[in-house]
Design brief:
Length: 256
């Protein structure tokens, strides 16, 4: 038996990266997954491959959330879980960040998470789960990603509020806080069809060797396993918590 047998879960930003690996793992563990994204070609191909359902979803638009939830319930009759994975990252010094860029990041990362919980929670079966993707930067600062850091602090706050408000229905809400992970978000070179993924991974491991105690960048599959833990009964007495998965980065800097 799989850890998610019979459960219906929406995963946002699921066409590639962490969301893709979460969708693949959840299906392998018995869940019926709704792959949600704005990357229609990639999302539809993934859904067809793994036996899931694809829905187009711009997470910053409330009406699209409503349509996605309706499609999920029409297809599967119920909802048991949500993984708010969709997010964007922009690099800029704080004083150089245009308001338009800041608000774009807020709309996807923060508003998208809020709308997901607002729309999905009333439809979740009692005992359901919500996993919000925050970040290592939800718990500390990082230069050049001020807008991203602000939204991820907000996601963690929303996670704690939702955990309190939904506890009486047995709905658990937690946040995963990845450090650097080898996806297109942190490594845009992955979008280059001529690039060698293995070579890129080796280069990133070398870059993070001195920054991260475990000496390498994280893998999307590792983040997916944490999302599985928080969606399954293995975490039945855990709610309102941040779970850092960063190879020890947040622990501090070694001077040895």
């Amino acid at each position: 038996m799989g850890k998610l047998d019979g459960r219906v879960v929406i995963v946002t930003g699921a066409a590639r990266g962490q969301g893709e690996q979460e969708a693949r793992l959840f299906v392998a563990e018995g869940a019926r997954v709704v792959v949600a994204d704005v990357l229609d070609d990639l999302g539809e191909a993934l859904a067809k491959e793994i036996g899931a359902r694809y829905v187009h979803l711009d997470v910053g638009v409330e009406q699209e959330w409503q349509a996605a939830v309706a499609a999920a319930k029409k297809a599967y009759g119920r909802l048991d879980g949500l993984v708010n994975n969709a997010g964007i990252l922009r690099f800029n010094a704080l004083v150089d960040t245009p308001l338009e860029e800041f608000m774009q990041v807020v709309q996807v990362n923060q508003v998208g998470c809020f709308l997901g919980m607002k729309t999905v929670a009333p439809e979740l079966a009692d005992g359901g789960t919500i996993v919000n993707t925050a970040s290592y930067t939800a718990l500390t600062g990082m230069a050049a990603v001020g807008s991203y850091t602000a939204t991820k602090h907000a996601v963690l706050g929303l996670t704690r509020v939702a955990a309190l408000e939904l506890a009486d229905r047995g709905i658990r809400v937690n946040a995963i806080c990845p450090g650097a992970v080898d996806t297109a978000m942190s490594n845009p070179a992955r979008l280059d069809p001529d690039a060698d993924p293995a070579e890129m991974s080796r280069a990133l491991d070398e870059l993070y060797r001195k920054l991260v105690p475990l000496g390498r960048i994280g893998r999307a599959e590792e983040v997916a396993r944490l999302a599985l833990f928080l969606t399954s009964d293995d975490s039945s007495y855990i709610t309102g918590q941040p779970f850092v998965i960063d190879g020890g980065w947040l622990a501090g800097v070694s001077v040895i």
